[in-house]
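Bench notes, afternoon.
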Amino acid sequence: MQALVVAAHGSHLNPDASDPTYAHADTVRETGAFDEVREAFWKEEPHFREVIRTLESDEVFVVPLFISEGYFTEQVIPRELRLEDWDPEKWDSEGTDASQVTLEAGDADKTVHYCGPVGTHDAMTDVIVQRAESVTNDSDVGEGVGLAVVGHGTERNENSAKAIEYHADRIRERDRFDEVNALFMDEEPEVDDVTDFFESSDVVVVPLFVADGYHTQEDIPEDMGLTEDYRLGWDVPTEVDGHRIWYAGAVGTEGLMADVLLERAADAGAELGNAVERVRAMTAGSDDAATDEPEPKAGN
């Protein structure tokens, strides 16, 4: 038997923070690829510490629903899962290369394949592009359009920016959008000045965050000038400094994220049958499929 554990942050303050986690886990569950699928959180129940012990499967694939390699993926999750002999060096990563390490879970008698975060997997590039398609309602969006991939960024963890820049580079290489730039909240170049970095009249802004919350629903819209007060909502698109800004909201709410979970597990040796193809068919052209929530509009 094989099991999948989706390990996410969760929140004590935002009751909607875990919605994408449950939605993507449900999508994977529908494929029947795993005998068991469990959600686990740092800030909510069920907690990381107990989840392995609730499983009957003797082979467990743990996929962190996080954007970048760092404190949570390298220290918190392995510690709470009690993964024996874990060391971040086992990933042999420069910040975006983490794949998987096979370890034993202390006192559980289970083999655990601990995977890198979803945010650095190559399949995330497709999710970002599909997020742009969803917000513009245009499956061919790209010509005459700029794309901003937005991350948190922090001087305390250089890997935070690496994940954003990695996917921006990959999308740029596809030569689909006229311009592609990586922008950040807490380091240069800043998303506050989004219109300074694009000549395109239309700019799609996709935040590389797992769930919509304080940053994606309050900080970024106000910082970009979409609205003076996030509580008043904003139009999609909104005109700012002569540009039309198509703000997509958190990439993690896109239904195709379930595919990235499967891709991570497959890379670690999970037997998935045709699950990847099924998920891509199920989520093709999805628009906020993970939450079924509408994009914020003026007056909402």
